[in-house]
Amino acid sequence: MSDVIIGTGKGTAVGAPQPDPNTPRVNYLNVSHTLSSWLLTKDHKRIAMLYLFSISIFFAVGGAAAGMVRAELMFPRGSLLQSEGYNRMFTAHGVIMIFFFLLVAIPAVFGNFLIPLMIGARDLAFPRLNLLSWYLYMIAGTLGVTAMLFGGVDVGWTFYTPLSSMYSNGQVTIAILAAFLAGFSSIATAVNFIATIHKMRAPGMTWDKLPLYVWGHYATSVIIILGTPVVAMTLLLVVLERTFGIGFFSPELGGDPVLFQHMFWFYSHPAVYIMILPGFSVISEIIACFSRKKIFGYHFVAYSSMAIAGLGFLVWGHHMYVSSQSMYQGTVFSLLSFLVAIPSAVKVFNWCATMYKGSVWLASPMIYAISFLGLFVIGGLTGMYLAAMATDVHLTATYFIVAHFHYVMVGGTVTAFMGALHFWWPKMTGKMYPENIARYNALIVFIGFNLTFLPQFVAGYLGMPRRYHYYPAEYQPWMILSTTGSTVLGFGMIVPVFYLLWSLKKGKDAGPNPWGAKGLEWETESPPDPHNFHHIPVVTAPVYDYDAEAEERELQGEN
Amino acid sequence: MGNSWLTFQPEKASSFAGQVDALFYVITALTIFFTAAVGITILILVNKYKRGKKADRSNPVHDHQLIEAIWTFTPLVMALAIFVWSTNMYIHMRTMPKHSYEAYVIGKQWMWHIQHPNGIRENNELTVPAGQPVKLTMISQDVIHAFYVPAFRSQYHVVPGRYTSMWFTPTKPGSYHIFCNMLCGTQHSEMVGKVNVLSPKDFAAWLDKSGNRFTETPKTLAQAGEQLFNDMRCGTCHGVENTERGPSLHNLLGSTRVFTNGATQVADEDYLRESMIDPFARITKGYSNTMPVYVYKKQINEEQIRNIIEYIKSLGTTKPASSQPAPAGLR
Amino acid sequence: MKNFHAEHHIQSFGFYFKTFVLLAILMVATIVAAQIPDWFPGTAHFLKETMVGSILMNTIALGIASAKVYLVVSNFMGVKFADNVTKMYALTGFVWVTLMGIMFIDYWTRPWEEVKGWENKAPGAMPRGSASGDDEFGNVGKQQEIRPYQQ
Amino acid sequence: MAHVADSHGHGHKPEGVFEQYEDLHQQQSTYVLGMWSFLVTEVMFFGVMFMSYLLYRWKYQDMFYQIHHDLSWQLGGLNTANLLFSSFAVVMAVRCAQLKQNGSVLKWLGVVQLCAFGFLAIKAIEYKAKYDHGHLMLIPGNNFQWHDTAIPAGIGKLFYSLYFAMTGLHGVHVVIGILIFGVMMLLYAKKSHLVQNDYIPLELCGLYWHFVDLVWIFLYPLFYLIPK
Q1: In this predicted complex, what is the ipTM?
Q2: Residues B234-291: pLDDT tens digits?
Q3: Which of A13, A400, B95, C29 lies 20 to 30 Å from A196 when distance is taken between CA atoms?
Q4: A46-558: CATH number
Q5: Which residue, among B301, B297, B308, B305, has the nearest Cα to B142 in the 3D structure?
Q6: Measured between alpha carbons, how far is A325 from A327 in angstroms, rounded to an integer?
Q7: Which residue range forms the structural domain that includes residue C89?
Q8: How far is D45 from chain A (nearest CA, A)?
Q9: What is the fold of D24-224?
Q10: Is the CB of C93 less than 8 angstroms away from the CB of D43?
Q11: CA distances from A524 to A129, A202, A533, D220 (A)
């Protein structure tokens, strides 16, 4: 602690000089190579890489299930799958993508990797707990995928009672236990983040200087610790009802099926924010860096995350306008749902305003960030149709909903995930990927995405129900368009696997700060040392200390 | 549905359709406007302030309270306007009309069973008259279903254990999709049907021909209920007058029941149903639990319960003394 | 950063013991309160059969429980002496009260909603051919207007 | 990993401070906060059950009132006193740990263990009574039998489902408590360096145990003392 290193963001690596230039620098990747050094690691960066590897696999499985569903829907009475198989496919797609990809993708990979680096800590507060959360996640994922691919679960990811508790024959119990374990994995991560963010910040790193990325993850963690136990317990009650015939939710046994929906959505609506808030936080970082500007209205963006986290708990009933809940409660929920839209709108406007008088560099992460803005605006605004009760009566549980939440979840979270992957890949691996291919691929993803999901808005408005295996022929044109788009989207998702793996072997060395970004994580080497910082930095510079004008002067002077 | 290959608009066949569509288009206009505004702003900014391009970048703004306030409150006001509009409409859609043609819907895996009050039964088809409100009282026999008619912009869940209701006024004779819109098991996507909207004249004719389906004279639900009532000898205890074994069922509906614990409840259809399948859930004051519960429970199905309720209804109703504590103006 | 030890100075034996004694008294109080209707049959009717008595008894039982919770959280768990962050998280635990409150809005207000079926004297409810005119609510005209099969 | 820390001049940290922390204060306050946020999740976890309980209690108030007479408020009260005293013993143990009185810590922890086992023993008596009381099978499951004609079997089952689910989950927490206090006793008996300089591990276990106590404080009036 005697040596004080100032985190000023000069773009130079802070580190002890290497005694011998011929021996490669020790970093977290090459510090040891044994399998056990990976499987028993307590280093947050290695755990992040473990997560990256595992979520990629689950994403591929979930994506394959989606591919089956879309292929089946090319024809009104498709014959690729039986109805039972079809139901199992979309359930597998939903459960895997939500519980094993979206809920964990950004927090567990990039949150784990970056939060200690960004706040100037050596590691997360509880490294062993962190490793435990990965194991819980892997057990849950393996169990869930096995149950769904080999046993079959056909109740949808929502597990509505009494279908899930009394009537379905599939491996619902195992799938629920998997979701339960996955819940505990994310609780462990969230507890870790909260303790880390509160107590492990480097000297000088006040809440005002905290990157918006960290703010977003803090809000997410609060939602996780408040919401996840509720759904875990609720699902456990479903298992009890299923196994022992205990009537918590089944009307035949004296229970109330709508109670399940209340408790399920009490978590599962905030879960949407668990998925999208980390996406927001990634976008804040990318836009600030590639506009060379401090985020416009830093405090508004930070507090809007907390507002979303708070209000997000009070709107679950908008999933239940037609579920026979009381009309009066529906009214309350509708009002609150409109209110929760406002903080998100404020964020979008602030991001746009950030580019004003900036120096916009259209690198591949920035292209993902911009397409995020476009897609999220559509996703967010179409939420208004569903917050409004009168239109929701017509649109709920149709393809309109499907399109809406895919715009938020895929257009939002997955795009942000891709942006984050491209932005921090050089930091995580020390290598640069082929930038041009990445940029064109970002465009392909954007086009494929819109082609997939815009037609679904129309199909939904026309009244096509979701989760339909056989459907009336008049919806076929929209389904064909959508399937075509999904092919393009799938292609756009596979290409990065190749060029990112290629970059590991052949990519150029990235150097500590290839993007010229600010923030403590860019002041470490790429890849960072096992213990992140040789000395805990003392932060004096303000957050996002960019100067677009000076940088442009330098850049244009050189030309 | 229209015959054109690409349609952008579902058919409008109920009085709600026009209203919902108006709201839908207003939100659509807002969505397109804001999406375009954000998109064009981004394109302009990206183009103007592209890296390496000469532009005025002096004095960048990082905070501006007024601008933040403007773009917080403008969407807020718009959102609240839409909220008021849509909520008004929704309350209208959820307030059952006093006078309507009433049909009963029973959902079961994977079919719709529909009973008309005069005894006509239909499977996966619902025949209703155009131009008058139609109220559906719905219940499920197993899992949750949703009764959804896109052309009417109407949808409501059909829940086991409890009656739910929805209403609409069909405006255009024709035949429209019924979808089950809540995942209900393997053949969920085949739990579909048709609403046949007939002109009042055709509907009267249809009723006269007993729906063209039954050769024998259909019993009304109440008559069917009466028969069941007699078969099961309910009248032994539940006669015209209260006996010591059981209360009379005459003028039962709508009367305020006082229970052994002192709680009270206006007897509604849900209460009647509960009393049939679970007589001891709430015992009326002055009586004890003597109803042979194991005889009746599980022996009558939803259809028969419905019939008995109709029979009890035909025995007379009481207008609730002090109406429900609903806020004024909503009725 | 504040000194952590300063916030967690060691409490005296007496402090903890007093808290325990208080808790024990409250426990006895809640048991006694619950048994009153059985021990004093005169009160049984009021406390068991009337709405006011029921609310009173429930309030007493849960009120005493809340007081005990307060004592344990503040004195035994040390929230009284903890930093603000800990206090904040201790309070966050009570979010589930809102969960229950908001859920109960649904169950409380459900009965307000429906216009009951029996008020809705449907035309088809009558046996065909016996179309008597008015119902007991005197809605003769309207009803006849919408009766399709009288045309 | 030690050489990494050494080479950067952090060898002077006191024993028992993990490498990610600067000093003992930071470590202690971080652990306490972590424990509190975990307790928040526990509250929400039990919250679901309390919600179900309150809803069905509200719906079937009379019958729940009648069934609750099957439960013995005396045994429940005994257990309440038991848990309250164990909570007191825990704070005393933590206090002795703060004062570094190793022997007294062990003594108080022994008291805690006694209380915890006593709690489970009483619980077992109660469960046993439910199992064979009047030849009823009251443990919800496929063998559930209900011969009380005054109350529908469904409601009886619902009450006992909630009773067993809630007290069972609480009982699981008590068992976990016994385990972690067992580990603590072992550490203090062996004078492990993990607990010699740092009373926080014991304090965390204490927080957990108080939480278990809190749950019971609500369970007792809700199940054993239900007012009508």
Answers
A1: 0.85
A2: 877 787 778 777 888 888 888 888 887 777 888 888 888 888 877 777 888 888 777 7
A3: A13
A4: 1.20.210.10
A5: B301
A6: 6
A7: 83-110
A8: 5
A9: Four Helix Bundle (Hemerythrin (Met), subunit A) (1.20.120)
A10: yes
A11: 25, 14, 7, 56
